[in-house]
Amino acid sequence: MAESGYESVICVKPEVHVYRIPPRATNRGYRAADWKLDQPSWSGRMRITAKGKIAYIKLEDKTSGELFAQAPVEQYPGISVESVTDSSRYFVVRIEDGNGRHAFIGIGFVDRGDSFDFNVALQDHFKWVRQEGELAKQAQSGENAGPKLDLGFKEGQTIKINIGNIKKKEDKTSKSRPAGSGFLPPPPGGKGIGVIPPPASQPPGIIEPPVSQPPQTSTSDVLFDLSPPAPSSGTDMWGDFAAAPSSAPGQTPQTPNWVQF
Fold this sequence. Notes:
Layout: E1 8-19, E2 42-51, E3 54-60, E4 67-73, E5 81-83, E6 90-96, E7 102-108, H1 112-144, H2 166-176, H3 219-223, H4 240-243
Antiparallel strand pairs: 1-2, 1-7, 2-3, 3-4, 5-6, 6-7
């Protein structure tokens, strides 16, 4: 993979402390408790940049931005950056001066979240490097595999598709429809339209006399009798009104009981 020509910033922390560390006595690792944590040798800001596959840890002055030290990282985890065994906020970094000389220093963060971001920034960068390398290998192996298989249609080429389930579905739909005239049944509890059955056929030679039916009376005739009343002899048509006593002033007139208001 060709190295990128520009440099990108992947992490910035405004405060970091630098410590002088004693030589490692055993192969167990570094311990921050052996450092003078209350007397840092230098304090400033830290920037992590990436150029191609390499990440650079740069320690700079907070005000002027002057570079104090730089640590190129080609692999993480690796020899360039190591965690201490007794804390998650301190690391050992291998710095270089550009002339082939290198030294190991200790760095520490006041906030535990800053140390987490420092760790994640390096992990994400080298994860991206591995993915880019795998994609490049796949592209190279694909080019060496030979010509790609052409599965497209040629000019004038056609295909025939036989869909055999459509007719069966239509037959099933027509069978599922109920036979009849299409009228919906009456609702539950409702009275449907009565159909008078035809008269039964009579045997030959027997004639039944017609059945006389009573005259039909309409509902309006039952409720309101419109025929004039028959005059009764010796009866006054005014009824109780003629016999009602005259009401005196200041008295409520007595209405007969049969008058309904």
